[in-house]
């Protein structure tokens, strides 16, 4: 009787031990799969970098310098250091500028860098104010990919561009921040957008229109317009535009 009980106890102990080993193996499998995913992502990042720079250090430094110049100019404009001229009152939906088509000062291609700022200088998430609109998400590794930045407008402001919106970078900690190594910032202070139907930029609210520019380390003048909203302590900035 004692031997039977001892055998049963040994069997139960072995069963528990096997279950613990199985759990440990399952955990190791999950860890390995996670590491494989990370390595795959790192490989994709490296391939992306090599594709963009074509293994050319000189080209990489050129991209880095351009990004640093853009950051310096945008930060200066947000801080109120641009040279501005008051134009006058504009209504919501009225034309304020046109998005420059092609490369321009501190920009490698056509897009509107749209910023919402409080009068104390603090930038805000534009999606907290803009309403819904038809869009194409091109903010990730490719247009329509699942790794793009969130597009979640929840406000009632009209958009500064006509639909359909081509969305190339979001607000805050974006895909580009984490995957493009020459970007010298870890937080994107606006959204980068373009329209597939028009290059006209509109006032999102009633207010006073200012035309401005800033000449920074790149030696060129980054043009922008600003609308100081009449019904709140916000203003909006529209960068990479012609008046």
Q: How many structural domains?
A: 1
Helix-residue proportion: 25-40%
What is the arithmetic mean of pLDDT?
Answer: 88
Shape: elongated
Poorly predicted runs of 5 or more residues: none
Radius of gyration: 26 Å
Largest sheet: 9 strands, mixed
For the termini, the CA-CA separation is: 98 Å
The helix tally amounts to 3
Quaternary arrangement of the chains shown? single chain
Q: Let me know the number of strands.
A: 12
Per DSSP, what share of the residues sits in E-state strands of 2 or more residues? 25-35%
Structural class: alpha+beta
Order of helices and strands: HHEEEEEEHEEEEEE
How would you portray this structure in words?
The protein has helices spanning 2-53, 57-78, 175-179, and strands at residues 83-90, 95-99, 112-118, 123-124, 135-137, 165-169, 191-195, 200-202, 207-215, 221-229, 234-239, 241-242. The protein is α+β, with helices and mostly antiparallel strands and 243 residues long. The protein has one domain (57-242). The longest helix has 52 residues, at 2-53. The mean pLDDT is 88.
Secondary-structure map:
Blueprint: H1 2-53, H2 57-78, E1 83-90, E2 95-99, E3 112-118, E4 123-124, E5 135-137, E6 165-169, H3 175-179, E7 191-195, E8 200-202, E9 207-215, E10 221-229, E11 234-239, E12 241-242
Parallel strand pairs: 5-6
Antiparallel strand pairs: 1-9, 2-8, 2-12, 3-4, 3-7, 3-11, 6-7, 9-10, 10-11
